[in-house]
Design a protein that fits this description.
alpha+beta, Nucleoside Triphosphate Pyrophosphohydrolase, Arc Repressor Mutant, subunit A, seven-stranded mixed β-sheet, two-stranded antiparallel sheet, 9 strands
Length: 245
């Protein structure tokens, strides 16, 4: 028998992915759509984050992991619980009230928000029953509930953490170029970075391992590939990652 849900506690998950091709930091969203049964009038037509109520036998972390697994098929990813959203009016606007009534859940719901970092190519959106879509974090569609505020808070935390922890490597392929690393920093921080200065600083980091490999399938001169060594970082740089851009 499926465990009972806790009706007024939920977890919402912001799933960030970086597209190396478009150089875009993206958020994974699902469509929220509802028609009137009588008139077929469109009542709700927007996008939302993926979330679900916590089950009685779960910790909050367990719920977040389950939600991510159900959405993407992935687990053991970087996750961060970053804020609780408990405004009593957070589900009270007209569209949200209609949706809450149709789904029969508690309008006074407190949500614990997490964000996850995934490699975009690892998420199979085409064959996913939830039909999720990637959207650029700076060009989001109309959002339901307070999910725009949740995404903005997650994005602000990600910006700060990317300068003090090596989480940015969670968004890149296992092998990458210095230019691809620079591109993802620029995408997250929203700034242009001096190429020479960035390369000079990064190549002094012992956790950045130069490989005896180069890019393949590119029309221009292929660049050298690198990888991030979590073992070296944990041994040497755990207290001193700070990046100055």
């Amino acid at each position: 028998m499926r465990p009972k849900i806790i009706p007024n506690i939920s977890v919402d998950c912001v799933v960030f992915g970086y597209d190396v091709t478009t150089k875009s930091l993206n958020v994974l969203l699902i469509k929220r759509y509802l028609e009137s049964k009588e008139t077929h009038e469109i009542l709700v037509n927007d996008h939302v984050l993926t979330g679900y109520h916590t089950l009685e036998n779960e910790t909050i972390d367990d719920t977040a992991t389950r939600v991510l697994k159900e959405l993407t098929g992935l687990d053991n990813l970087y996750k961060k619980q970053f804020k609780v959203f408990g405004d009593p009016n957070r589900l009270m606007n007209e569209k949200d009230s209609i949706w809450v009534e149709s789904e029969n859940f508690n309008q006074r719901t407190i949500t614990i928000a997490y964000y996850f970092l995934v490699k975009t190519h690892e998420v199979d959106v085409k064959n996913n029953i939830h039909k999720p879509q990637w959207f650029p974090v700076n060009n989001l569609p109309e959002l339901g509930f307070d999910h725009k505020a949740i995404i903005n808070e997650a994005y602000a935390d990600l910006k700060a953490k990317s300068l003090s922890e090596p989480i940015i490597f969670e968004l890149l392929p296992n092998k990458f170029t210095v230019k691809e690393l620079q591109d993802v920093y620029e995408s997250i921080l929203g700034v242009e970075i001096d190429n020479r200065n960035f390369r000079r600083k990064l190549l002094t980091k012992k956790y950045l391992i130069a490989l005896d490999e180069k890019q393949v399938g590119v029309s221009k001169k292929p660049s050298q590939l690198f990888m991030f060594s979590k073992d070296i970082y944990q041994k040497i740089y755990k207290e001193s990652y700070l990046i100055s851009i």
